[in-house]
User: Fold this.
Amino acid sequence: MLQVAVLGATGSIGASALDVIARHPDRLRATVLAAGQNVDALVALCVQHRPRHAVIAAADGYIALKRGLANAGLDTVAHTGEDALDALVAGDTCDTVVAAIVGAAGLRSTLAAARTGKRLLLANKESLVLAGELLMRTAREAGATIVPVDSEHNAIFQCLPDSHAHAGLARLILTASGGPFRGRSRESLRDVTPEQAAAHPKWSMGLKISVDSATLMNKGLEVIEAHHLFDVGADRIDVLVHPQSLVHSLVEFVDGSTLAQLGLPDMRTALSVGFTWPERIASGVGGLDLLAQGGRLDFEAPDVGAFPCLRLAYDALRAGGTAPAVLNAANEVAVSAFLQRRMGFLAIPAVVEQTLSALPPVSAASLDVLGDADAQARRIAEQAVQHLVT
Ligand SMILES: NC(=O)C1=CN([C@@H]2O[C@H](COP(=O)(O)OP(=O)(O)OC[C@H]3O[C@@H](n4cnc5c(N)ncnc54)[C@H](OP(=O)(O)O)[C@@H]3O)[C@@H](O)[C@H]2O)C=CC1
Ligand SMILES: CC(=O)[C@@H](O)[C@H](O)COP(=O)(O)O
Ligand SMILES: [Mn+2]
Assistant:
């Protein structure tokens, strides 16, 4: 029986992970559920899944969580704070961790899982963008198994089963849906609303990643994520827009073969792979009927003129050091300001670019250096937001 900690349980990935877990009561059990601030949703999940521990990040939610669990007649133990979460992730109530907290807030618990050699189903791409070398080294040294569950990286993972395949690798091709604004000019995006930006054409996801998909920053973060996961340089990672979102990514080999993984756009497939790979279990996702899906697979080049975030991410990866951490932090500030209607959609790449220019990269030697870069970038990006709106 795999004992699973689901971090970000109240989110979109959390829901998909818990759906797969509930389908396999003989093999999978949710023992730890963690969320940010949504106490009611966390208690409801505890009623359904009966974990041993529930963690709410926001300290002011602790009493309500404790009371909610008691009122529901559960013996689930309530916790709050990052130290408590780290201890649970590292402890023996779980052997498998679904890392699905959104943003840099997920780094600490992701690292705690890696440090203690757990099976890590990694959705929280920001932790790899921020501290990829450190996270991969930590996992390697501790013997942790990282299974990427970001759909593109999960596809590549399935196409690269062993070191022989890796040795013959020519390039990775990440597919992108193009987001809700595919085909539009840069100027036409000036007044788009958060609702329009968050309306992803193919995937049902949290707000932050949906906006990232609309700017193509999601694909930029994924290029950096792929670099760390598969140890491939920026020059051998390409992006291809594929509006049907049925081909989840491709791997080209030196002999001219290209392998791809296809399936309906539903994260339960990638999560199922993560739980039991190399064995496959039912995920609840049906098979892919290509004719029913329209009978065609289209591909086009990304438009980096209209969507400069993709170029900024490649630049940050090539610059190295703390640049990806700065890119990530500035993007988190900018997306949040856009969602709060403090600035327009086109200001997102502007804030990221200004922050990157203000903070030249230094060697990302330690977690402290990366933490400082993240904090400085957030301050500078916030100033840029204020400057843009005044
Ligand atoms: N959704 C998807 O299909 C995909 C998502 N991903 C990645 O997975 C991650 C999660 O995405 P998604 O599920 O869409 O996001 P959601 O916004 O739907 O969910 C985010 C989750 O993180 C929790 N959370 C936020 N801040 C904290 C914190 N400080 N401590 C603990 N928990 C916190 C939220 O809790 P609360 O509800 O209480 O606020 C919620 O459970 C992101 O990194 C995203 O890029 C990758 C590929 C696909
Ligand atoms: C489901 C998933 O993995 C997302 O990251 C998805 O890829 C977003 O779609 P875009 O291709 O539009 O960024
Ligand atoms: Mn993805």
